[in-house]
Amino acid sequence: MKLKIYNHMTGKKEEFEPLDPSRVTMYVCGMTVQDRPHMGHMLAFVSADLIRRVLEYFGYEVLHVQNFTDIDDKIIARAQEEGQDPKVLAQRNIDRFFEAADALHIERATLYPKVTEHIEDIIAFIQRLIDAGHAYEAGGSVWFDVRSWPSYGELSGRDIEELESGYRIEVDENKRDPLDFALWKASREGEPSWDSPWGPGRPGWHIECSVMSTKYLGETFDLHGGGRDLIFPHHENELAQSKAVGGQFVRYWMHNGLLNLEGQKMSKSTGHFFAMEDVLAEFSPEVVRFYLLRGHFRNQMEYSRERMEEARSAYERMRRALQRIEVSAADPHLGEESGPEVSSPEGQALLESAERAKTAFDEALADDFNAEAALAALFELVREANPYWVARPEAPQLEAEVVHRVREVLRGSLAVLGLFESLEAGGGEIPPEIEELARRREEARRARDWATADALREEIQSKGYTVEDHAGGSTIRPA
Ligand SMILES: [Zn+2]
Q1: Which of 412, 429, 446 is where one domain is finished?
Q2: Does residue 446 sit within a domain?
Q3: Which CATH number do you get for residue 331?
Q4: Which value, in Å, is the radius of gyration of the alpha carbons in the chain?
Q5: What angle do CA 464, 447, 461 make, to 5 degrees?
Q6: Are residues 289 and 348 in the same domain?
Q7: Which residue, 293, 326, 360, sits at the end of a domain?
Q8: How many domains does the chain contain in total?
Q9: What pairing do the DSSP bridges indicate for beta strands 181-186 and 473-478?
Q10: 316 lies in the same domain as 258
């Protein structure tokens, strides 16, 4: 099946042809780590994870690079506020990023380069831009000369003249033109700085992504991802810088939609219930991942507690269906009465439904990673399977081939999306009362309320079940 990708550069869905037929190169703009990760960040990274997993599902090896911006104005300002070393602040938030990413089952990127570890590469890149006549030094800073790059605006579709008159641009007396942007910033008193041919300073924001992406992926690579809010100026600037030293830079530009709260772009300043710690105290990581995968990644998503509750009930519907199927599949008496052949018309129809769901799932993902439609195909299969199980309440009455095939399609497909990867361990049917206790214990654990969590564990054990904790959640079994 051929994969199609919506390429922001051309505004079209295009058939995907990686430069190297077996290996895809992908760069994703990572976090600026002045604060803890929030839901808006995780939407971008779950979207990138979806793309990565689907590429792997379609047989590609993926070289995935995602940076950390670990020095910039916001980090310096925050560190000064807190009386902290910017390095310590950045590392603390990098640790929090990994905690959240692991909880959400985001596969680790191949590389996570940091700005502070690439200063020499950045200086060399800037020097190349100066030598090529696309950048100039003024007052200890270095600026990209936007007027020297005629195709500036090609990604965002903006016109230089319009930008000049309308866009609110950082004013600096050293710039030749208001549109020029900083590649290197002369350091101010008390700020972290590095020596350079232009004096002590630090990199501007945009240059790091050009340097780190091309260093590890080559001057031209396949995919570049990030949120829609990065298209201008960040990606436009990355593109100008990178093409100015050679190469096409990026072959397919992909941007995820943003998370909206009553029409407002979510940012650090919009209050609580956005920080991952707060969200994960109320919802299990799998429900959060499920919510973030439910829409098409390119669309804007509405975010509220109500939407999260809706996601939880849909997720629970799927979980209960899987649980029932797992119990049937594990039953030693499965199919004893029905025999080895699939002889019932309902069984044959359900086998066909399973094949249809699998095809629809694959087609949806091949069509620009449409997880929304892919999940809808699986829910449709669950809906169609329900009457079959209702009519055959005992395992001997079920047809083994039907049970196994429906199980295989659902579990295999959900695993592609990084969902229900650990359900196998669940074993037998767990009474709702025990599940409720387990859910409350998970919440207590995420809120680091260990006393309550321990008390709930004891209560669960006293009712004949054991709890096993593992990364991203826990599993209940009959003792
Ligand atoms: Zn970037």
Answers
A1: 429
A2: no
A3: 1.10.730.10
A4: 26
A5: 10
A6: no
A7: 293
A8: 2
A9: unpaired
A10: no
Give distance in angstroms: CA of 67 to centre of ligand 1. Answer: 8
Q: How far is the CA of 113 from the centre of ligand 1 (A)?
A: 12
Per-residue model confidence as pLDDT tens for the chain (479 residues): 899 999 999 999 999 999 999 899 999 999 999 999 999 999 999 999 999 999 999 999 999 999 999 999 999 999 999 999 999 999 999 999 999 999 999 999 999 999 999 999 999 999 999 999 999 999 999 999 999 999 999 999 998 888 877 666 666 778 899 899 999 999 988 899 999 999 999 999 999 999 999 999 999 999 999 999 999 999 999 999 999 998 899 999 999 999 987 655 555 444 557 899 989 988 999 999 999 999 999 999 989 888 999 999 999 999 999 989 988 998 889 999 998 899 999 999 999 999 999 999 999 999 999 999 999 999 999 999 999 999 999 999 999 999 999 999 999 999 999 999 876 444 445 677 887 888 788 888 878 899 999 999 999 989 888 887 765 567 777 77
Residue 286, domain member (yes or no)? yes
How close is the Cα of 29 to the center of ligand 1, in Å?
Answer: 4
Helix axes 371-391, 400-416, angle to 10 degrees: 160
Instruction: Tell whether 248 and 321 lie within a shared domain.
Output: no
Ligand 1 midpoint to CA 54 (Å): 22
Buried b (16+ CB within 10 A) or exposed e, 37-63: bbbbbbbbbbbbbbbbbbbebbebebb
Cα of 206 from ligand 1 centre, angstroms: 6
Shared domain for 328 and 187, answered yes or no, is: no
Q: What is the DSSP letter of 269?
A: G
Judgement on whether residues 88 and 206 belong to the same structural domain of the protein: yes
Measured in angstroms, how far is the CA atom of residue 249 from the centroid of ligand 1?
Answer: 13
CA of 475 to the centre of ligand 1 (A): 38
Q: How far apart are CA 71 and CA 174, in angstroms?
A: 22
Task: Provide the residue range defining the domain that includes 395.
Answer: 304-429
For residue 51, the domain's CATH number is: 3.40.50.620
User: Separation of 83 CA from ligand 1 center, angstroms?
Assistant: 28
Predicted TM-score (pTM) of the model is 0.87
Q: How far is CA 247 from CA 75, 120, 220, in A?
A: 32, 21, 5
